Amino acid sequence: MPPPPALAHRIAVLVFIENTAGEQLLLMRSKPPNLNCWTPIGGKLETATGESPFECAARETAEETGHVITPADLHLFGMIAEKAYEGESHWLLFLFNCTRPIAALPAAMAEGHFGFFSRRAIDSLDLPATDRTALWPLFDQHRNGFVALRADCDPGKKLAITVEQELRGGWL
């Protein structure tokens, strides 16, 4: 039997941004992946230019929200290697907590529209399955620390998450 076709590997960032009231800024995505789901903002690294994950997070934040930040405004709190996400590709995601609050709700764009939500309200929103089971619990536990994990997201299998490294807040 021939091996399964190789899947593309994509590198991306997600940026968690709060307003001054402590509500999270989320994007209702109008395009795949995560069509019609609420997610943090983010995007793919420009690998052809050698862009770092921190540079990508700052760029994506400015492009999607108009909130101009620098890499110094970001705390890398997680890294997730997702295997076979939606059966389409592998992802390496860098998770950032933006330490500079955003002042106002950004205008809608081609990617979708924005909303502010309390952390409690997020649990009742339409979220991607891996965000509900892994991403938000990771944010809750590690937003001031660091965690690295891998997730087997193959649609033909049960989601399997393995923590590869975990450092609690205050380690820097």
Give a concise summary.
The chain is an alpha+beta fold and 172 residues long. The chain has helices at 53-65, 119-122, 129-142; strands spanning 8-16, 24-29, 38-39, 41-44, 74-85, 89-98, 112-117, 146-152, 160-167. The termini are far apart.
Describe the structure.
It is a single chain. The chain is an alpha+beta fold and 172 residues long. It has three helices and nine strands, in the order ββββαβββααββ. A six-stranded mixed sheet has the order 4-1-6-5-8-9, sandwiched between helices. The radius of gyration is 16 Å and the shape is globular. The mean pLDDT is 91.
Layout: helices, strands, pairs:
Layout: E1 8-16, E2 24-29, E3 38-39, E4 41-44, H1 53-65, E5 74-85, E6 89-98, E7 112-117, H2 119-122, H3 129-142, E8 146-152, E9 160-167
Considering the chains and any ligands shown, give keywords for the structure.
single chain, 172 residues, alpha+beta, Nucleoside Triphosphate Pyrophosphohydrolase, six-stranded mixed sheet, three-stranded antiparallel sheet, 3 helices, globular
Under CATH at level 1, the class stands as Alpha Beta
Q: Looking across the biggest beta sheet, what order are the strands in?
A: 4-1-6-5-8-9
Task: Report the β-strand fraction as a percent range.
Answer: 35-45%
Q: Cα distance, first to last residue?
A: 49 Å
Count of alpha/pi helices:
3
Instruction: Quote the average pLDDT.
Output: 91
Shape: globular
Give a quick account of the main beta sheet: strands, pairing sense, barrel closure: 6 strands, mixed
In CATH terms, what is the architecture?
Alpha-Beta Complex
Radius of gyration: 16 Å
Enumerate the spans where pLDDT stays under 50 for 5 or more consecutive residues: none
Report the order of strands and helices. Answer: EEEEHEEEHHEE
**How much helicity do the residues have?**
10-25%
CATH topology: Nucleoside Triphosphate Pyrophosphohydrolase
